[in-house]
Amino acid sequence: MELIILSYNDEQKRDLKVESKYGKFNVLWEGELPLLGEKIDVELDIDQHLIWNKDIYLSMNDELQIKQSEEETIIQGKLEEVSDAGFAVLRLGNSIITFITEGTAFPINSNIQIKVVNVTAYPIDY
């Protein structure tokens, strides 16, 4: 996913405000800190285990978006895959975000919304 670096929320904690075509949100940055205004391709990662109907909800619309609230990042997309072990894939256009789940999963191709505390961005070197 391509991100534009908007600001440093906290350089010490590597907490950045970024923008993608799906919205503005905060990330924890891995690797060398980028320059303000820089466009970078990244892989987004969610480090917490998410629970169905607690952190993951069905969405009534198919809008692809990522937005930041005071305490969490909200990501909305299409559920592409869930393994028996709880490994899930959320699709946002050409990008995917993977995460681990607990509980009974929603059907594949459902529009879902996940709420997470942190999203980590890993720059992709081509």
Would you summarize the structure shown here?
0% of the residues lie in helices and 57% in strands. It is mostly beta strands and 126 residues long. It has one domain (2-123).
Descriptive labels:
7-stranded mixed sheet; mainly beta; 5-stranded mixed barrel; 126 residues
Folded structure, characterized:
This protein is mainly β and 126 residues long. It has one domain. It has no helices and twelve strands. The strands form two sheets. Strands 5, 6, 7, 8, 9, 10 and 11 form a seven-stranded mixed β-sheet that branches. A five-stranded mixed β-barrel has the order 1-2-3-12-4. The radius of gyration is 14 Å and the shape is elongated. The two termini are 13 Å apart. 22% of the residues are buried. The mean pLDDT is 95.
Strand content: over 45%
How many distinct domains?
A: 1
Choose one word for the global shape. Answer: elongated
Q: Structural class per helix/strand content? A: mainly beta
Largest sheet: 7 strands, mixed
Average pLDDT rating: 95
User: With helices defined by DSSP (H or I, 4 residues minimum), what is the helix count?
Assistant: 0
Number of strands: 12
Please state the CA-atom Rg, rounded to the nearest Å.
Answer: 14 Å
- Low-pLDDT stretches: none
